[in-house]
Write a structure and sequence with these properties.
Number of helices: 1
Number of strands: 3
Structural class: alpha/beta
Strand content: 15-25%
């Protein structure tokens, strides 16, 4: 696969709460790690509770119910 032929689309604003809710339906998890710039709409509560969520970001903080790890660009 030639990476130069891959067309990326998007524009931000992924509703990661919905993604986490779908994960709950797909199996049993010990931990969820989300890589994001943080520009997401987050639900008020963890959709995977009591499973912990770690948000790895370089821009905005994750929700209060998750552990946020900020990395440098």
């Amino acid at each position: 696969l030639d990476p130069s032929r891959i067309r990326l689309r998007g524009g931000g604003g992924t509703a990661l709460g919905e993604v986490l809710a779908q994960l709950r339906e797909k199996g049993r998890w010990d931990l969820a790690v989300v890589l994001t710039d943080g520009w997401s709409s987050w639900p008020q509560e963890n959709p995977l509770a009591p499973i912990p969520v770690v948000v790895v970001t370089w821009d905005r903080e994750g929700p209060d119910w998750a552990r946020t790890v900020k990395v440098e660009k």
